[in-house]
């Protein structure tokens, strides 16, 4: 495997995290100045719950999707493929899980490389050929190798707190705002600042998320040496999405950020998607295929 450090990904991660950190400093200052301890205490409390969620992210994500950790006896070929690809990617073998769903998709979760899980749906295994499935599994392993779950969880933390403050700010801060200069005005300022912080962080995180998909596609190509297989898989999965019952899609829509192909939700959903378009991803993979053929 010719795995090379993706400096483009690292640079974007650094810039995004730096901007989010700067945003957090301003945010914390405004909340403290205008509201006092009420909302800030709420943020710390919510942060504690988020850390617990992060620590048990693999278990919680699998349970939320109805995924079942499967043994080698139940899915010998799936285990063999993940074990082989993990060795090629120089990773510990992750947990192997399966979701009984007609939606053809896959995702990876876990806080680090030693506490990761790769999950596929039964619909995906029925849809793809073996080399195409290997491409998808390698894509998920590339997410694990790039520590994308950890980075995106940390990056999303501020955005989630800001959103919760916009939604519940008046309730949690109202009592603490009274008696301060500005009173209710301070609460309004805090909620408006929270709204701005949420919008900016939301856009930054979506941009980072889309780029990480490109990076994981490149990582999959490096692991398998077969970019065209992943390109074929992406086209198949994207085409099959249109045939899946809407009820099944609605049940899994909240997991879009984890899936290899997102469940579309109209024009706005695509505009703020966590993933780049399938067409752009396939074009990149075909470029990689041509580059490999020249060496």
From TrEMBL:
GO terms for cellular component: plasma membrane. It is found in: Cell membrane. The active site is at 140. Pfam families: Peptidase_M48. The chain crosses the membrane at residues 12-33, 39-56, 149-170, 182-205. The keyword Hydrolase applies. Residues 76-288 form the Peptidase M48 domain. Its cofactor is Zn(2+). It is a multi-pass membrane protein. Its EC number is 3.4.24.-. Zn(2+) binds at residues 139, 143, 213. It is an enzyme of class 3 (hydrolase). CDD domains: M48B_HtpX_like. Binds 1 zinc ion per subunit. Keywords: Cell membrane, Hydrolase, Membrane, Metal-binding, Metalloprotease, Protease, Stress response, Transmembrane, Transmembrane helix, Zinc. GO terms for biological process: proteolysis. GO terms for molecular function: metalloendopeptidase activity; zinc ion binding. The keyword Protease applies. InterPro entries: HtpX_protease, Pept_M48_protease_HtpX, Peptidase_M48. Its main location: membrane. Belongs to the peptidase M48B family. HAMAP family: Pept_M48_protease_HtpX. This is Protease HtpX homolog.
